[in-house]
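Chain A, query sequence.
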Amino acid sequence: MITGMTGFGAAGFAIGRIKGQIEIKSVNHRYLDIAFYLPLGCGMMENKIREMLAKVISRGRITVSVRITDKPSQTVSFNEDLIEEYLRHARSIEKKYKLSNNLTLADLIRMPGIVDVKEVFIEAEQLWPAVEKGLLAAIKGFKVMRQREGKSLTADIDDKLKRMTAKLKAIQKQHDDLLKAYSKANKPEDFASYQKSIDVNEEIKRFTHYIAEMRALLKAADPSGKKMDFIAQEMQRETNTLGSKLQDQMVSNAVIALKSKIEKIREQANNVE
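Chain A, predicted structure.
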């Protein structure tokens, strides 16, 4: 089954008091083009994320956003060894000079080196396991959405192929009717030349083959968008030949309808991975 190129997937991640959100979005593109929006200091994740996506996506313009939504801005710690040192000296001075010891917690906190306040810096290596797990969940949802689009594209393209088959049958019938009418109204020696000039059996057979190839691609597991576009170009070539060989109003109308459907299939192929 073909896969579309429009997708969205999201998942959260957490490690300790750090929480974040991952989003993966894609639109159609001829090649695989990935843009990253990562937290400061997490550039090393790019290659790892790229490798994960390349395993499941062959083309499309992908945007990967990893955001930190919640984290402690600062950490506070107390140097208990230094507190013990201050208190030991305080007791020694109290005993030596017979002073009253009224040292309070507030006094201790104000002493140099007792309180240590640090800004929280997120290490990419520490964060990666949680991000990787979140990415796997986001990719799963992302793929489901692209598969749903693929089903919709399959139904639309298959409908156009059915209509094209009907037009080819109508052209074949008109071709046969024209031959019968000409044979009745003209000399036998002129019939052979006329028959050769309007012979479109080869074009119709090739066109029918291309329709079968297109239907096979709709069921293929491998990326098919570029192949579908190529086949549509070949269909266009055969359609032009049909129109030039059979100078008939009914055939001209059928050729216009075929070209319209081929163009729509090419547009849809741009949305197929």
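The chain is about 60% helix and 15% strand. The helical segments are 45-54, 80-97, 105-110, 124-185, 188-197, 201-219, 225-245, 249-269.
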